[in-house]
Amino acid sequence: xxxxxxxxxxxxxxxxxxxxxxxxxxxxxxxxxxxxxxxxxxxxxxxxxxxxxxxxxxxxxxxxxxxxxxxxxxxxxxxxxxxxxxxxxxxxxxxxxxxxxxxxxxxxxxxxxxxxxxxxxxxxxxxxxxxxxxxxxxxxxxxxxxxxxxxxxxxxxxxxxxxxxxxxxxxxxxxxxxxxx
Length: 181
Prior knowledge:
The protein is mainly β and 181 residues long. It has a single domain, classed as Lipocalin, CATH 2.40.128. The protein contains one helix and eight strands; from the N terminus they run H-E-E-E-E-E-E-E-E. The chain has one helix at residues 7-31; strands spanning 50-54, 59-66, 69-77, 108-113, 122-130, 135-145, 148-154, 161-169. The radius of gyration is 16 Å and the shape is globular. 36% of the residues are buried. Residues 1-47 have low confidence and may be disordered.
């Protein structure tokens, strides 16, 4: 899928995809009851949120309810490769040219998951946005346990996709901020 790009670009693209998927995973873990475990079901109250990280890619998302659906937004990230001071990752691969200059901080990466339609420890029917490709994919979230989720982004059917793992975190060391307009 990736053409002859520098390893930094490839890593940033790979990290963006993982981040998007990580968001979805984070949200499902916060909302789905752990029916297969001995612990009581986990529910996310409408007034709270939870923070999830994908340690391999360094993306940190906050999962919460957007209306009646589970969603997540990028709140922090750790750069895999060194960047100059003040570097702000942009949504430069977005398929909408008008959005290519927006900072990734705060971008909604996942949505469409209806907690009322969960089956056991899984939510289907959602979507995940991948900033590395600028595309939105179908997604499912699976709760592994109270602190771990799996997010699967795919095209068409789940067989044609990728899964990333996220774990719950109390709070990121530092939240990203968007620069003033």
